[in-house]
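ingest -> validate -> predict -> emit
validate: passed (alphabet ok, no gaps, 253 aa)
predict: started
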Amino acid sequence: MSLAALPLFVKLAGRPVILIGSGEAAEAKRRLLERAGARIVDRGAALAIVALPEPEETVARLRAEGVLVNTVDRPELCDFTLPAIIDRDPVLIAIGTGGASAGLAAALRQRFEAMLPVKLGKLAWALNTARGAIRQRWPDIADRRRAIGAVLAEGGLLDPLNEHDGEAVAIWLAAPEAKRGDELLRFTLTSPDPDDLTLRQARALAAADRIYHRSGVPTQILNRARADAARIACDTPPAAPGPGLSVDLEMAP
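emit:
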């Protein structure tokens, strides 16, 4: 299954963005652009937002000039879409539907707003400040990734869905590390649909350092693993899977 669009975070502070149109929809986009620090212009930019009743001619002209266009309420005329945003500076969560339903994106944003702690941004800044200390404690990048993944996991000391005080990161770094052995989890999948994964299977894929798999395991299942997890095709389960967490997948006959 391919991505309908690749989500990107673009820094617009001080950069020009074309805004064409008037009315409530255009003003809403203006406020969003101003919040991002963009310079709103009539021409001479790589991005444009068009809020017109009949936008086709304007969109065609902008595209001919190499401009990427967002057309309000016309997803078929959009090169990019603007998501619903949850802001916990510096944490930004963007929810998009590819223009299919702005109402659905807004409803999801409201649900997630209620779930995420107000101080989530402070946790992010604390982790950023501690980057040097984290690298010093775990010089190996794989060890560092596992340690951060474990502490931020559900129920972990820094579980991001819980509130934390200003000393939480320092307390984590000062605590003795529990020794974790190497582990291989084997799963026989009964469905090629990733939505049919059990909670345990989905969590294992998200946390694994490497994925061993038979040739019949579909790509959409493998894509549920971390992007930086190694994917290793093999005919039989590994005899020496390697350090950390490995997952071995095969399809049921």
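The chain has a mean pLDDT of 93.
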